[in-house]
UniProtKB/TrEMBL annotation:
This is Large ribosomal subunit protein bL19. It comes from Richelia intracellularis HH01. The lineage of its organism: Bacteria, Bacillati, Cyanobacteriota, Cyanophyceae, Nostocales. It comes from the Bacteria. This protein is located at the 30S-50S ribosomal subunit interface and may play a role in the structure and function of the aminoacyl-tRNA binding site. GO terms for cellular component: cytosolic large ribosomal subunit.
Length: 130
């Protein structure tokens, strides 16, 4: 049995953590769904300067919520599938632009890893705005 004092102390700690995390949450993120084709602008440091490198691909997974929210973006580069996981609220993410909406029936699109060529196409969805 958990004591009431422990629960009160634990809830206060959770509230403190949420308030600290709220400062770092980005408010300008678009609504991203699995199956969307997105362009993620990633800040890359070269010497003393920063530049933004675009990474375009299909969102095959979303994970968690709050400050730890991530998306997995897959693209095919020179015939090889490349996946990158992006922390949405990271300062390294400059911007995320939705190129097209995809119509899928799964929460995770890991089956795309085993597909090649035209079999990896996802139908476009027109009922959600870009």
């Amino acid at each position: 049995m958990v004591s009431c004092k422990f629960l009160v102390r634990f809830m206060k700690a959770q509230d403190i953590i949420r308030s600290i995390e709220a400062e770092y949450l980005k408010s300008d993120l678009p609504i991203i769904y699995v199956g969307d084709t997105v362009t993620v602008g990633v800040k890359i440091r070269e010497g003393e300067k920063f530049r933004v490198q675009p990474y375009e691909g299909v969102v095959i997974a979303r994970r968690n919520g709050g400050i730890n929210e991530t998306i997995t973006v897959r693209r095919v580069f020179q015939g090889i599938g490349v996946e990158r996981i992006f922390l949405l609220h990271s300062p390294r993410i400059d911007k995320i632009k939705i190129v097209r909406r995809g119509r899928v029936r799964r929460a995770k699109l890991y089956y795309l890893r085993g597909r090649v060529g035209k079999a990896t196409r996802i139908k476009q969805r027109f009922d959600r705005p870009l």
